[in-house]
Structure prediction request, 344 residues.
Amino acid sequence: MAKAKQFVFLADCKKEEVTSFAETLSYKGRNFDVRSHIANWKRTGTLSELKRYLMYFCVALKYFCTRRRFEAIVGWQQFYALIFCFYCSLFSVKKPCTVVALNYTYKEKHGRLSKLYLWFMKRCMDARYLDYIHVPSAEYADIIHEQFSFPRERIIVTTFGINDHYDDLASLPAPDGYQRNGYALAIGRSNRDYDFLIRAWSGIDYPLVIISDTYKGSSDSQNIHILTNVAGAASHPWIANCALMIIPIDDGSICSGDTVLLTAMSLKRRIIVTVPSTLAEMYVQDQVDALLTPKDETQFQQVIQSALSGQYPGIGEQARLSFLAKFSRRSMGEQVSKALSGDH
Prediction:
């Protein structure tokens, strides 16, 4: 008797981080077995980056070599699913199973490797093997469809979701040297325009902390403190105690910043997001649960000053209400399941 084929969910984080999502995710009436292959460690330089990329290829190769065992593969880490499809396309094998890449994003490379990376991504997105991708923006879905000719009807558009840790994080003490609600914070490594933020902050007399382990810039301002050695759980006290969470997006068409935004929303922080951005498109409303500003230094400074002067006092509370209603990880799983079943 033939063994029943498996439905696997490939994550690059601890299982408990995606349990609530995986519990609600189903396809063809089956739930998924969560398999964790950790790759989201702190990035400390070229060596750690190479190790992370090697992990992506090795994990995908493992599942490619045993591909006949699977009915469906869903990659929470997009590259586990995408590189699986890359191997299938490279070796022109018979389509083995349904493959879904969640949290998809593509950022063009520059320099000598740009053409090679584009070729690689096109192979990853071979529609003969990759069945669905998920993005948190309808505008971005249209861009990807045009750029890679991937079928638009097979691009699932839903917002991202995170687990709610309010009870654990909201009461964390402020970091040493800082007071609760006594500083603004910008945090994250992907698609951030910290150069703009530093320029714009020159006219603001208020402490700003930038946390990024990949940002190479600097500032002479005594009001700006740049930290490159804070990651994971160590970032939670900074988020829980900031007066303002600022998310300055570099390329507004690229999906990024979702986790930081939703964490800040869940913790009732007042949030400033630059536009255009997918965050403004899909998650927040201006002067309702966040403040939106163009990347114009004068207008940005005006928005910051209005927030610091006490305008919009209930915006943090409303941010949490929005989060609870629409952006939990369980809610995300339900939305993706409906899309996979065609019920969307």
Q: What stands out?
A: Residues 34 and 169 are 26 Å apart (CA to CA). The mean pLDDT is 93. Residues 46-65 form the longest helix (20 residues).
